[in-house]
Specification:
heterodimer, A: 5-stranded antiparallel sheet, B: 114 residues, mainly beta
């Protein structure tokens, strides 16, 4: 993988359900993996910065895992709420400090 | 409020012109990043400065240049503007240093080329 790919592109989830989505990135030249939450008409908000293989981070109902050897990260949301509706972006930071963003997963929470 | 200030919020100009976008980072942040978001593309990394020095360069066109001043604010200069330069330009800042830190985004400058 030369680029950063996020799947699915879009996701509809019933309120109260849990969900997860994927960020795939190159497994070489890894420096860090960032997750952002981007609400409509706002600017991206940092969720996690992950650097070590096997890292797991948690913030309230949102958590993320990292596998640098195979080049993927999962973002999990437990018990989805309407305020979780947003686009979730991941960004791969290389060892030369260049940054590549995925196109995001757009999450819609259905009441 | 992220603490990152971008001005102006909106800019409308014509092809061939030159504009300057300004960014003031969060207090204490030494790194500044510039990104471009076009309609059909995701966020594209343009350039990073750390404490006044260029640190990394992404997909920045030769017609574009940036700098970070001693007071740590940064400017992105776009010249010989083309219709395709219409986009939302974000600035972000972080503490900087050896360990990767979260980036805090400004509200962006929307540039429209007529």
């Amino acid at each position: 993988i030369l680029n950063v790919e996020q799947s699915p592109q879009s996701l509809h989830v019933q309120e109260g359900d849990s969900t997860n989505f994927t960020c795939s990135f190159p497994s070489s030249n890894f420096y860090a993996l960032h997750w952002y939450r981007w609400e409509t008409a706002k600017s991206p908000e940092a969720l996690f910065v992950m650097t070590l293989n096997g890292d797991e981070k948690k913030k309230g109902r949102i958590s993320a895992t990292l596998n640098t050897k195979e080049g993927y990260s999962y973002l999990y949301i437990k018990g989805s709420q309407p305020e979780d509706s947003a686009t979730y972006l991941c960004a791969f930071r290389r060892t030369d400090d260049k940054i590549i963003f995925g196109k995001g997963t757009r999450l819609h929470i259905l009441p | 409020d992220s603490g990152v200030t971008q001005t102006p919020k909106h800019l409308i100009t014509a092809t061939g012109q030159r504009v300057t976008l300004r960014c003031s980072p969060r207090s204490g942040d030494l790194s500044v990043y510039w990104y471009q978001q076009s309609l059909d593309q995701g966020l594209q990394f343009l350039i990073q400065y750390y404490n006044g020095e260029e640190r990394a360069k992404g997909n920045i066109l030769e017609r574009f240049s940036a700098q970070q001043f001693p007071d740590l604010h940064s400017e992105l200069n776009l010249s010989s503007l083309e219709l395709g330069d219409s986009a939302l330009y974000f600035c972000a800042s972080s503490v900087g240093g050896a360990d990767p830190q979260p980036q805090h985004f400004g509200d962006g400058t929307r540039l429209s080329i007529l």
